[in-house]
Amino acid sequence: FNLACCHEVVRNSLFLAGEIGGNDFNHAFFIRKNIEEVKTYGPYELIGLGARTLIVPGNFPIGCSASYLTIYETVDKNQYGCLKWLTKFAEYYHHELQSELDKLRGLYPRANIIYADYYNAAFTLYRDPTKFGFTDLKVCCGMGGPYNYNTTADCGNPGVSACDDPSKHIGWDNVHLTEAAYRIIAEGLMKGPYCLPQINTSCLMNVSSGYFNS
């Protein structure tokens, strides 16, 4: 064991610290905790052991997921079909996390802390799905209901099937996005405006999908 070598590896590595809080929030909302209780789930330790470069992602626009749209069925939706109150919570978390990262940058000026804006990178797809070749909020793998999701029959259960063309859907199942959606989000993070500060693209391989050609 070479401690000096280990420190060198840590110092020169890129750490993806997150998606921070996603499952913590999902669990709380699935058991119907109220929004004020969930807002207190905020303490994080993001830097340790000499790490110099970290990418800290925010959360996805959870108000657009099939799970929440099914569990919290309501007419109170925005023009894109997403739940208003959960969209506002995701925006709250987005701003609070950025504020905490600013504090960390002050405490650790030698660290390069990059915020990955999952929220806006993904919400772009929900705002204008047809621009990227997607259809609606129905998920690819599921069964029943307006979003092809049944709370008693998840993707992978007997009798639950997947669609013929996942690339036409933003959501793979009630929680996860499709490979096509993740690819577009990743390009928006690596080559677009959704990282703060932006990633130095000179060290990235050429990435080409449809994000900046649309």
Percent range for β-strand residues = 5-15%
The number of distinct structural domains comes to 1
Helix content: 25-40%
Secondary-structure-based class equals: alpha/beta
Low-pLDDT segments: 38-46, 206-214
Question: Biggest β-sheet, characterized?
Answer: 4 strands, mixed
Shape: elongated
- The number of E-state strands comes to 6
Strand arrangement in the largest pleated sheet: 1-2-3-6
Number of helices, where a helix is a run of at least 4 consecutive DSSP H or I residues: 7
Oligomer status: single chain
Q: For the residues shown, what is the average pLDDT?
A: 79
Distance between the first and last residues' Cα: 50 Å
